[in-house]
Amino acid sequence: MKPFYHFSDEENNQLTHFLSQNAVNPYKNYQEFKLTINELCQSGKLPDFFIDICNSIKYERNRGISDVHVLRNCPRDIDIPELDPDNPLDAKYKNKKTFIGEALLETFALLTGTPLLAYGSRHNGDFFTDVVAIRKYSGQLTGFSDSELVYHNDRTAHAVRADFVTLLGLRCPEEELIFTGYIDGKSLIEHLSDASQEALRQAWYRTDFDVYSRETNSRQISSPDHAILKNHHSIRYLDTLTHVAPGAPEQAKDALIEFMQAMTKAEKQRHRIIQGDLLVFANQDGLHNREKIDIQNKDNAARRWLLKTYAFRDQITAEQYQSYWADGVFGRVND
Prior knowledge:
Blueprint: E1 5-6, H1 9-19, H2 30-41, H3 48-62, E2 68-72, H4 88-95, H5 100-112, E3 116-119, E4 129-131, E5 149-152, E6 164-171, E7 177-184, H6 185-189, H7 194-200, E8 205-207, H8 211-216, E9 229-230, E10 234-235, E11 242-244, H9 250-265, E12 269-271, E13 278-282, E14 286-294, H10 298-301, E15 305-311, H11 315-319, E16 332-333
Parallel strand pairs: 1-2, 3-16
Antiparallel strand pairs: 2-13, 3-15, 4-15, 5-14, 6-13, 6-15, 7-12, 7-14, 8-11, 9-10
């Protein structure tokens, strides 16, 4: 995938200097961190080129030009620790001393008008999470495994789901070819008949929670019945875990089969995230996956570390979920 913008080294240095003015640890006090970033952005010191980039991304989203963007050579934390594959979260808390990546993602969310979303049952409710391999999930269907991932939306089975997902490459071993694939919902529905689209818009389907969700919250077994298609091309689907609900009519199964065939036929975009890449895409208006194209060393590939945020489409969308807020913290949902 061609980057939407490639920061020059000088631009990287300018933005890094701006982000370095934050001294708050977002894992100890996110509210203070968020306030600090907001104050910095209003100080007049934020480089104009980053404001222009974020405005251009908003323009492309609003006009339906693209829901996927890559920024290259972004500021990031250079001195990052090795993570314990048995407990990477505790290792990050203990050993990560700088928060340039977190400040970049918070600033990006602020400038694009997409408030961040966090889940109370995951990572202690952190707004910045990690796409890393945890040893106990090796080979299993979860984003915290060392395996490939099927096409899906993040948190498919959950009541509150992100509109956008942003990934920042902190550690991406050069020898290992790992790609993120994306199918735009507009492309997928081109391969569906009107009858199948109508069936897929009915609450005739269920999605099982993945292994990590079930372990972090024992109540998370399966979603309520839901539609796979919504709006014009929004999708709610996790391959192999979304299935026809009991009691659904025969056309529900036929439509699901056609949907899976449409996934194969639809145009796909692929991007290999390298260190300093920021990849952001619409979570509900498309499907994404993880493909391991060529792995030279499995253990080295498992060191891959992406910093991740979830975000709502806009402030109005976020406010619709206020009844879900955990402990009154805006954006952190009880799940």
